[in-house]
Design goal:
single chain, 408 residues, alpha/beta, nine-stranded mixed sheet, four-stranded antiparallel sheet, 15 strands, binds S-adenosylmethionine, binds iron/sulfur cluster
């Protein structure tokens, strides 16, 4: 998770949730996010809650899975004692950091704990993120045996110069190998790409997209490079060593992505995400965008159950102290009021293709619809049939569309 935590209320050490969390729970999907907060080196652009070996203040990566298991075991009891009905996980997502820095057996142990604590629904989507550096054929086969169904590789670019600016350590030629091994293991494959790296040309980006498409993944994410405060990339830009990403060029990159991916048979279903078909959309991420329930396990992980949101202590050492003492690792939490939940609903649903029903908007939002169609930001035909669906231009200006739909 990027950036500092929100300022909320203190969370109780027993982790119990207010009664409001249980309201309507049976009608919502439940997912589990497992954060693995370790990376071999930190990429210059990344401000995720992740730590290299020298930043661990005495805790060991090898102890992490048993600590996460303690949180999972406690979580089942906390939900039950808070009156939230038991639901099997419809999706499980291991993210990081680099989950695949841990031995496959450790990921399997955490997944087993999810299975015994909550159950895993039949046909569940079980994903891990992976750095192409950190897996081989045997590792991926072990994941598939353990119940993983999908792997998401951080490819970022196919161009060595761009990867060097991003400080990525993997050899781009490894991507076809790891994708092939994942396929042999029977795993679905997603690739993450980043565009707008300083010095990246439109030709470079085309090359990366073509290489990614050549791997025939089921799913692709293309993220515009965000210059996060406090990162090495931000310092390099401030000192003038690297150019600030150019907004017009970012828009051209996005349009090229949509054109090439569309031509190759990938349909967008969220501003930064494309898939071969509806079955290969990331169900875990869709559950976030649809404001379903999820439990986030691990340092800095965020959770959301029925409008109650909480976040764990960030450092792995603080996390270990809490869970080993039998306490909840939650650092703070907030109960969203109805107005905030509505803002989030509009913010999140606007970005996905299924969109928001027009008649679920407040009157001021409905009054914006004709203007948004006239400005080419939302699709007129979809709006006529009752749904807000972004056009290509609307996807580029999604934040502005949301502001207008929420305008007073
Ligand atoms: C946790 S990482 C994926 C797994 C693994 N750590 C890796 O990087 O290969 C999640 C993804 O977030 C994206 N990301 C991280 N920081 C970003 C930034 N500042 N701007 C845009 N995308 C970013 C990258 O595409 C990365 O693949
Ligand atoms: S490997 Fe992934 S999580 Fe780790 S620093 Fe790089 S982008 Fe961030």
């Amino acid at each position: 998770m990027a950036g500092p935590h929100p300022i909320g209320d203190p969370a109780p050490l027993d982790g119990l949730l207010p009664a409001s969390a249980a309201v309507g729970a049976a009608g919502r999907d439940f997912g589990v996010y497992l954060h693995v907060p370790f990376c071999r080196v930190r990429c210059g652009y990344c401000d995720f809650n992740t730590y290299t070996a020298t930043e661990l203040r005495g805790v060991k990566q090898s102890d992490y899975s048993s600590q996460a298991v303690l949180e999972i075991e406690a979580a089942g009891r906390i939900l039950q004692d808070s009156g939230v009905p038991a639901r099997a996980a419809a999706t499980v997502f291991f993210g990081g950091g680099t989950p695949t820095l841990l031995p496959a057996a450790h990921l399997a142990r955490m997944l087993d704990a999810v299975r015994s604590g909550w159950g895993i629904a039949a046909g569940a989507e079980v994903t891990t993120e992976a750095n192409p550096d950190s897996v081989d054929a045997d590792y991926l086969a072990q994941l598939a045996d353990a119940g993983f169904t999908r792997v998401s590789f951080g490819m970022q670019s196919a161009v060595p110069r761009v990867l060097a600016t991003l400080e990525r350590t993997h050899d781009p030629e490894r991507v076809p190998l790891v994708v092939g091994w994942a396929r042999e293991a029977g795993l679905d494959v997603s690739l993450d790409l980043i565009y707008g790296t300083p010095g990246e040309t439109l030709f470079d980006w085309r090359t990366s997209l073509e290489h990614a498409i050549d791997q025939a993944p089921d799913h692709l994410s293309a993220y515009s490079l965000i210059v996060e405060d406090g990162t090495k990339l931000a310092r390099q830009i401030r000192r003038g060593e690297l150019a600030q990403p150019d907004e017009d060029l970012q828009a051209e990159f996005y349009e090229l992505a949509d054109e090439l991916l569309g031509r190759a048979g990938y349909g967008w279903y969220e501003v930064s995400n494309w898939a071969t078909d509806a079955a290969h959309r990331s169900r875990h991420n869709l559950a976030y965008w649809r404001s379903q329930d999820w439990w986030g396990v691990g340092p800095g992980a965020h959770s959301h159950v029925g409008g109650v949101r909480w976040w764990n202590v960030k450092h792995p050492a603080a996390y270990a102290d809490r869970v080993l003492a039998g306490h909840s690792p939650a650092a703070g939490r907030e109960t969203l009021d109805d107005a905030t939940r509505e803002v989030e609903r509009v913010l999140l649903l606007t970005r996905i293709r299924e969109g928001i029903p027009v008649d679920s908007l407040a009157p001021q939002g409905r009054r914006e619809v004709a203007g948004l169609i006239a400005d080419g930001l939302i699709d007129g035909r979809a709006a006529l049939s009752g749904t807000i669906e972004l056009t290509l231009r609307g996807r580029l200006l999604a934040d502005a569309v949301v502001r207008r739909l929420l305008a007073d």
